[in-house]
Amino acid sequence: MTDSPFSETLRNATWGDHSEAEAGIYLKELMAGRLSPEVYGEMIAQHYFAYVALDGAGRALADDPVAAPFVLPEIFREEALVRDLTTVYGPSWRDRITPSKSTLTLVARLNQMADWPGGYVAHHYTRYLGDMSGGQFIRMELQKIYGYQRGGGVDFYYFDIGSLPRFKQEYRGKLDAMPIGDDEKQRIIRETRLAYQLNTEVLTDLGRALRTETAA
Ligand code: HEM
């Protein structure tokens, strides 16, 4: 391992995977304003299943010394995602949504993380720091496109934690302070790359569904 802080090593080692995650057709079409609210809702629905699993693993690890600093019930996403799904699909949203195959794969991996604190951190970082970073740009675009206000539609991009830049700086400090050795750090880097891949596959599936719709 280099002498760089772990947060920096992790970011550098996975930034290539990030480029792939943001490059897919679904996000491109979404950002261009070419998708109906219902098709945007498909992404929220997949996030719903993933976050319920991720935060479920967090609950199981709340007393673990490695995971505990990252288990923050005040930012758990389920309630915000339910508000968003209710806004897009109405009160019977639950009957409208199904996990895609790639979401089921991601959820299965997330469930396994309840037994591996370092792996939980890898997935937590990939989703939460992503939604707090590029996600903020995506939220602003979505608000322009669909006119959503706070209260439902894009609530899962809102975090009640005060200053986001300060939170992210503290988050990186927690990554740097993790009480683990170099081998575990390497495993976490590998798991973060997998997390990117699994999340990217969810977006790829959503993109594939778009092509099917266009072809139909
Ligand atoms: C349109 C799509 C996206 C854009 C424009 C975007 C953009 C960005 C930008 C500009 C940053 C750096 C922010 C900063 O340094 O404070 C960032 C960070 C990040 N993004 Fe994305 N992103 C996108 C999609 C994604 C996706 C799909 C994921 C994960 C599945 C993701 C995960 C992350 C993570 C984990 C970070 C934090 C990296 C770090 O600083 O350690 N992003 N994103």
From TrEMBL:
Q: Name one GO biological process term.
A: heme oxidation
Q: Does the keyword Lyase apply?
A: no
Which UniProt keywords are present, listed alphabetically?
A: Heme, Iron, Metal-binding
* Alphabetical list of InterPro entries matching this protein: Haem_Oase, Haem_Oase-like, Haem_Oase-like_multi-hlx
One Gene Ontology MF term: heme oxygenase (decyclizing) activity
Entry-linked SUPFAM superfamilies: Heme oxygenase-like
- Indicate whether Protease appears among the record's keywords: no
Q: Which PANTHER family match?
A: HEME OXYGENASE (PTHR10720)
What is the name attached to this protein's record?
A: Biliverdin-producing heme oxygenase
Organism equals: Sinosporangium siamense
The taxonomy runs:
Bacteria, Bacillati, Actinomycetota, Actinomycetes, Streptosporangiales
